[in-house]
């Protein structure tokens, strides 16, 4: 609907601009009519007749202009089909193929409208036609600024191939699988099933993380053992537990390091590789966490919960319950 509205506005602006330039010379050559109150009705009648006579006189030109527009439509369809056949053999993205066809049709239609305007208005010169086209372009550019911004951003996204249909991307807290990439917007399917329509200018201006650009993704978690335990002995236990998991990429290897001193435990960092999709990451993380917990429990190694030490500046008084019972 927006594309049709843009075409209608473009045609109207071009016609108004061309008509104004074509009638400029006629206005300069003719002398302004003299009006009076008594001749008002005659002037109105004469004006209507002049409009009708002008329409009759321009009927052949209008017919030829309509024929030019008809041929323009046929020619644009043929060129679009030819481009589709030429790009169909290449590895070009489908959205980029459609964009190439659309740009070719727009160029052909602009040239066809210019030619039709020259036919309808014989006094219109190519220089004036280009001037009218420039004025119309400025007006349309201001009216549809955001649409053209998304349009050109979509061209750059399609041309640079930053992500493909089916990739998982993340941009400004928006995470989802790419469902479709069009000229003006990109459709994302979130993990919860919701469809998010993102303007291409938003993706072009902000950092985009392509989670599935590679076939694997590195996952990192933190665990810990109590200070009373042998932290070095816990490292190979954790590594064997993770390596025995099924939802990891074993070829990439598993890494386990002592990371630091926590408030209640010796912190241990565990890293491994899994599928890049959000669902694959969650499944792998769940399996690894459960395996680490089970392995440490089997070896009797404590995974501590947070401890808190209370320090009192004054000694606390102690009262014996037995003494109170004796008094009673």
Q: What topology does this entry show?
A:
Blueprint: H1 2-29, H2 40-88, H3 94-120, H4 126-143, H5 145-160, E1 168-171, E2 174-181, E3 185-189, E4 195-199, H6 200-205, E5 209-210, E6 217-225, H7 231-243, E7 255-261, E8 266-274, H8 278-298, H9 321-327
Antiparallel strand pairs: 1-2, 1-5, 2-3, 3-4, 6-8, 7-8
Helix pairs in contact: 1-4, 2-3, 7-8
Protein model, in words:
- There is one protein chain.
- With 328 residues, this protein is an alpha+beta fold.
- It folds into three domains: 2-27 and 41-143, no CATH class; 163-210, SH3 type barrels (Roll), CATH 2.30.30; 217-298, Alpha-Beta Plaits, CATH 3.30.70.
- Helices cover 56% and strands 15% of the residues.
- It has helices spanning 2-29, 40-88, 94-120, 126-143, 145-160, 200-205, 231-243, 278-298, 321-327; strands spanning 168-171, 174-181, 185-189, 195-199, 209-210, 217-225, 255-261, 266-274.
- The strands form two sheets. It has a five-stranded antiparallel sheet. Strands 6-8-7 form a three-stranded antiparallel sheet.
- It is elongated.
Mean pLDDT: 78
| Helix and strand sequence | HHHHHEEEEHEEHEEHH
Class computed from helices, strands and strand pairing: alpha+beta
Shape call: elongated
Find the count of extended strands (DSSP E, 2+ residues): 8
How large is the count of helical segments? 9
Poorly predicted regions are: 21-31
Rounded to the nearest angstrom, the distance between the terminal CA atoms is 94 Å
Largest sheet: 5 strands, antiparallel
Helix content: 55-70%
Order of neighbouring strands in the sheet with most strands: 4-3-2-1-5
Q: What share of the residues does DSSP label as strand, in percent? A: 5-15%
Q: Rg from C-alpha positions?
A: 38 Å
Count the domains: 3
């Amino acid at each position: 609907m927006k594309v049709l509205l843009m075409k209608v506005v473009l045609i109207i602006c071009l016609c108004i601009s061309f008509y104004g330039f074509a009638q400029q010379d006629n206005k300069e050559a003719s002398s302004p009519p003299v009006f009076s109150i008594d001749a008002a009705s005659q002037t109105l009648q004469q004006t209507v007749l002049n409009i009708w006579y002008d329409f009759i006189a321009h009927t052949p030109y209008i017919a030829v202009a309509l024929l030019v527009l008809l041929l323009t439509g046929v020619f644009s369809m043929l060129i679009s089909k030819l481009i589709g056949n030429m790009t169909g053999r290449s590895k070009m993205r489908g959205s980029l193929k459609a964009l190439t066809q659309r740009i070719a049709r727009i160029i052909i239609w602009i040239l066809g409208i210019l030619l039709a305007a020259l036919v309808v208005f014989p006094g219109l010169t190519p220089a004036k036609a280009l001037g009218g086209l420039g004025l119309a372009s400025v007006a349309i550019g201001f009216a549809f600024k955001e649409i053209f911004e998304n349009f050109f951003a979509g061209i750059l996204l399609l041309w640079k191939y930053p992500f493909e249909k089916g990739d998982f991307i993340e941009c400004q807290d928006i995470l989802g699988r790419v469902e479709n990439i069009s000229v003006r917007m990109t459709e994302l399917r979130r993990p919860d099933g919701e469809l998010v329509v993102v303007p291409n200018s938003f993706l072009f201006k902000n950092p985009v993380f392509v989670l599935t650009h590679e076939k694997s993704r590195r996952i990192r978690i933190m665990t810990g053992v109590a200070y009373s335990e042998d932290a070095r002995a816990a490292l190979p236990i954790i590594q064997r537990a993770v390596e025995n998991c099924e939802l990891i990429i074993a070829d990439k290897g598993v890494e386990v390091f002592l990371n630091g001193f926590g408030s209640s435990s010796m912190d241990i960092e565990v890293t491994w590789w899994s599928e890049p999709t959000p669902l694959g990451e969650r499944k792998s993380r769940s399996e690894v966490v459960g395996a680490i917990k089970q392995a440490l429990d089997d070896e009797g190694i404590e995974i501590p919960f947070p401890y808190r030490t209370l320090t009192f500046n004054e000694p606390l008084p102690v009262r014996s319950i037995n003494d109170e019972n004796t008094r009673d």
